[in-house]
Each structure stands twice: as C-alpha cells, then as structure tokens.
Amino acid sequence: MKTLRVIRSFPLISLSLPPRCVEIIAKEGRSLKELYLVSCKITDHALIAIGQYSSTIETVDAGWCKEITDQGATQIARSSKSLRYLGLMRCDKVNEETVERLVVQYPHIVFSTVMQDCKRTLERAYQMGWSPNTSNAS
Question: Any idea what DSSP says for residue 17?
Fold first, then answer.
C-alpha cells in the first residue's frame, strides 16, 4: 500500500474491477490526482467512493463505463472538493439534463460528454471569429 500512496496517475483501462478495489485506491492513494477508468466495468459505487475518500483527485475519466448513472456523476461532483475534470463520454445512463445541471452547480468541474465537448468546441470557434455560412450557395 505504500507504493499506492505516492502514485499520482493511475490508468485502469478496460478492466472488470470489484467494487471495493476503486474504494481502496481512493482511500490509499493519498497523492492520486488522476484516475482513468475508461471502459472499466464499474458502477456508481466507484465514483461515490472516489468522491468520498480521495481528497487530492483532480481528474476522473469514467468514459464508456456503461453502468455509471446520474447518481454516481452527481455524488462525485457534490462530495469531491478537488475534482476539476469528470469524463463521462458514452456513459449512456447519465442524462444530458443532469450534466447540464451539474455544469451550472459545479462550474469549477469540466464535464466531458459528447454534447458538452461539442458546445465547448463551438464556443471556441465563435471566439476565434468563426461564423456559420448561412448562404444557400449551390
């Protein structure tokens, strides 16, 4: 467990993790800033545990985790004071309406979904002077 305490970034990609595994990582990873759980078979319990036990986590990417729901996304945003990025790309059980509400409630966290990323890209394009071509040229 001593090694886990000093790790700052922990990629766990496409794994089937027992529910307590992520909880132990959150509790013991005292320097953990980034946790990548992309395509892992985890549930809301994992996100809730991270929010509850990790005081240093800044980035959590749970993209393509099919069992993550509104509850997990809401709980980690609410309970984690250090979280700055939550990846929810293709977490299809997380409703976009919930994400919209979270964006307003927790403006210090970047929520990554298809819709949110498209909105940020379009906003940057407008800021750089892009405007849609509205002519009907053939």
Answer: -
d(CA 33, CA 51): 12
Residue 75 is inside which H or E element, if any?
helix 70-79
pTM for the whole structure = 0.87
Tokens of 114: 């298809």
Q: Are strands 9-11 and 34-36 parallel, antiparallel or unpaired?
A: parallel
Strand partners, 43: 67
Under 8 Å between Cβ of 37 and 62:
yes
Cβ proximity of 103 and 122 under 8 Å: no
Distances (CA, A) of 80 to 54, 109, 117: 7, 10, 22
Span 100-133, pLDDT tens digits: 999 999 999 999 999 999 999 999 999 999 998 8
61-70 confidence digits (pLDDT tens): 999 999 999 9
Beta-strand ranges (E) seen in the chain are 9-11, 34-36, 59-61, 85-87, 110-112
